[in-house]
Amino acid sequence: MSRASRIYLLVTVFLAIAAIVGGVMLAVDHSRSQPVEIVLCQVEPPERSGQLYIVGAVANPGIYPLREGDTIRALLLDAGVESDADLSQIKIHIPRKGEGDQAQRIDINRAESWLLEALPGIGEVRAQAIIGYRSEHGPFGRIEDLLEVSGIGPATFERIKDYITVSD
Questions:
Q1: Which end of the chain offers a freer environment for a tag, N or C, measured as fewer CB atoms within 10 Å?
Q2: pTM of this prediction?
Q3: Which tops the pLDDT comparison, 30 or 130?
Q4: How far apart are CA 145 and CA 147, in angstroms?
């Protein structure tokens, strides 16, 4: 092989290596300078249906049907939000599938006589005693305060404690 052939071969190999290294550097630089595109999935919202339990500073606490298109505002209007309600403190709890259904509890600070009478062992007389007690002494601070009401002893309290609550 002649000297010119060797130089030609060396120059060709050098140019080939330079082209490969240059291509790799351009590819790396090009991939760094390209903006990253983030694609968000278009997921259909779940169908809203079921029931909504509304309690607290409302005139008509209870379970309301939840249908497609309902808004929180419309549901609160149906429940009759009271004038002293703090709407900045609305709480929504969405249970997971299979999570035990909890029985609706009666708020002894807000319940009317007919609702209190639905509790086991509470008739018309005891329901009126509960209403009279809270009128005279103010709202109950905890469910155990119900033991202070005339006619409600430990046995009656044990029967109803899982069905009652006091508002926050």
A1: N
A2: 0.43
A3: 130
A4: 5
